[in-house]
Amino acid sequence: MDSRSELGDGTRAVRAGLPEAVKNEPTLPGPTFAAHFHLPGDPTGPYTYGRDENPTWTHLERAIGELEAPGAEVETLAFASGMAAISAVLFSQLRTGDVVVLPDDGYQALPLVREQLTAYGVEVRTAPTAHDAQLDVLDGARLLWLETPSNPGLDVCDIRRLAAAAHTRGALVAVDNTLATPLGQRPLELGADFSVASATKQLTGHGDLLLGYVTCADSELAAGVRRWRKIVGAIPGPMEAWLAHRSLATLQLRADRGCANALAVAEALRGRDEVSGLRYPGLPDDASHELAARQMRRYGCVVSFTLPTRERAERFLAALRLVEEATSFGGVRSTAERRGRWGGDAVPEGFIRLSAGVEDTRDLVADVLRALDESSVR
Ligand SMILES: Cc1ncc(COP(=O)(O)O)c(C=O)c1O
């Protein structure tokens, strides 16, 4: 444990990954744009070729590691996107003949990953996130993949319980920590081997870049992921990495406001007759709340609910003024969309995923309620 692990989230977020102060140098050095580095003689590190390492990544990776596992020795690897990070773990760890357990209600690109894994001779089993159902199909697995809270259904599974069960059976455990962010949940402390995320979402939070990362404590596992990044070359640009690091300074502020706004929106929606299937892990009567309260420190900024028909949902989205109709989530500006329009998730036509931004709570709730009223009239 270093003394930084005892600091509050806001303090750690503003200082995460910063190099030692050097007179006349900036606090966070600017992005290093380099395909190669001066390298006379033997090719020794840390910086040789731009696909392997870059000082801007190093600062960001240290920062994310400090947030994912305060005080612990971990390695973090940054990737060009969340999918690049997810694929790096799955494809670096799994071999033909292995068994992997995925959630059947996770991010909508997972079925594509499933197809690819199957094509390579990996057996893919799936089960829902709720009720720790992945436990039932774990025997013989090499890797268990969890996504909690799940996107877009917002079910929660017990990371500690599932990780212990997987380890007893000799399986590795990876958790997609995108929705929670490291300030909401620390999968490695709960027993996971890998914490993986799309940093495109709330971690960076401005909707202006794509990025992903993998954090793990075991250096051999990290070496496999690093090797995969080198082979595939799914590396982040220095500008994206620098913007991401810059954005971390406000993570606690954004996460707290997003969480408070999501709760306020969920509470407002709860009183509406036309809303069904309302989910937010922070709502005390949500099916996931008890478990979420045990393993999460913040409940995220995403609320999901269903309006009676596709047309009603479309009218609602069109009537919103402060909430942009867009995919993705976790940005400073609230967004919402009808998930059924993509065709990938098993959700009703009127299902809406709303991501609460950092607007004033009163304004956001008023906008949502007004749009509900207006959309009730044809
Ligand atoms: C839970 C989750 N994991 C991973 C991803 C993929 O991230 P990216 O779009 O950065 O590749 C997403 C994207 O929406 C997601 O919601």
What keyword list fits this structure?
2 domains; 7-stranded mixed sheet; 378 residues; Aspartate Aminotransferase, domain 1; 11 helices; 5-stranded mixed sheet; binds pyridoxal-5'-phosphate; Aspartate Aminotransferase, domain 2; 34% helix; alpha/beta
Q: In angstroms, what is the radius of gyration? A: 21 Å
CATH superfamily of the largest domain: Type I PLP-dependent aspartate aminotransferase-like (Major domain)
Number of helices: 11
Run of helices and strands: HHEHEHEEHEEEHHHEHEHEEEH
Overall geometry comes to: globular
Strand content: 5-15%
Q: What portion of residues is helical?
A: 25-40%
* Spatial separation of the terminal alpha carbons: 60 Å
**Helix/strand class:** alpha/beta
Report strand order across the widest sheet.
Answer: 1-7-6-5-4-2-3
What would you say the CATH architecture of the largest domain is? 3-Layer(aba) Sandwich
Kindly report the average pLDDT value. Answer: 97
Give the beta-strand count: 12
Top-tier CATH class of the largest domain: Alpha Beta
Whole-number tally of structural domains: 2
Bound molecules: pyridoxal-5'-phosphate
CATH topology name of the largest domain, in short, is Aspartate Aminotransferase, domain 2
Largest sheet: 7 strands, mixed
- Given as residue ranges, the uncertain stretches (5+ residues, pLDDT < 50) are none
